[in-house]
Amino acid sequence: MASFWEHDMVKTAANFSVAVLCIVVFLAVFELVTKYKNWEEIRKGNVAVAMATGGKIFGIANIFRYALARHESLPSMIGWGLYGFLLLLAAYFIYEFLTPKFNIDDEIANDNRAVGLISMAISVGLSFVIGEGIQ
Question: Whole-model pTM?
């Protein structure tokens, strides 16, 4: 008989808990690098911030999906998830760098939904690329 810690339901709960905790921590990091406060802007109804934040949440969760699919141990899953997050964070800075005519954070803070939508698409799209690269 398998031990308590080897039971599938316990493993699922552990993976879920770690992934949610990592998403919260990684969102806090994104909060530090953006000029706006995500949750204050969302509370005010800023749809561009909601789309950009939703894309980040989806992107991080998707990276963890790949990490979970390819790694049995929690430390390995966390390590690959962290690596994927760092790549997603780098993509955020590259996106900002590649748009010198306007500031991404300012546009999203001003509820420019077109910029918020593109930001969401970049986070979601690149999360699949990053996730597929997880070994």
Answer: 0.88
| CB contact at 8 A, 74 and 37 | no
| b/e map 1-18, b = 16+ CB within 10 Å | eeeeeeeeeeeeeebeeb
Which uninterrupted H or E stretch holds 103? none
Please identify which residue in the block is written with the tokens 């698409």. Answer: 121
What does the chain come to in residues?
A: 135
- Tens digit of pLDDT for each residue in 16-47? 999 999 999 999 999 999 999 999 999 999 99
Note every long-range contact of 39-45, with CB atoms under 8 Å and residues 24 or more positions apart, other chains counting. 41/109
Of 61, 58, 77, whose CA–CA distance to 69 is shortest? Answer: 77
